[in-house]
Amino acid sequence: MLENNPDHALLGYADTVGVAPVGLQLFRSGTLLAVANSSRFALPAAIGNMTILAVISIHPVLVQTVRALFVSRSLSVAADDLTLYLTSYNNGQVQIILTSN
After folding, report:
1. Torsion angle of C-alpha atoms 1, 30, 32, 95, degrees rounded to 10
2. pTM for this model (two decimals)
3. How far, in Å, CA of 89 to CA of 48, rounded?
4. From first to last of its 101 residues, what are the pLDDT tens digits of the chain?
5. How many domains does the chain have?
6. 94-97: long-range contacts (C-beta < 8 A, 24 or more apart)?
7. Of all helices (H) and strands (E), which one includes residue 54?
8. Residue 32 lies in a domain
9. Is 3 among the domain residues?
């Protein structure tokens, strides 16, 4: 569909409050978008973050920014559609983030 109608391919955009948004995960029935913002090229003092955006309109709204414990990499969502797992680059750590309705 987007290949046939490129003028309507961009549905919206937002500042993710990070340098390199590398991980994306929709959750809470597709109404929120979690973005893992990496900062690994700023090593050795690199700490990333995760931004949560409300994406129910064409203009996403920043809901919250969560400081990552290490360099953010990728995101997964649990079966409850509320718990997020944020992985870290090259250190084997997973940060569990509990969200609410």
Report:
1. -110
2. 0.81
3. 10
4. 556 777 777 777 788 877 788 899 999 999 999 999 887 676 666 678 899 999 988 788 999 998 887 778 889 999 999 999 998 877 788 999 999 87
5. 1
6. 95/68, 95/69, 95/70, 97/34, 97/50, 97/66
7. strand 49-54
8. yes
9. no
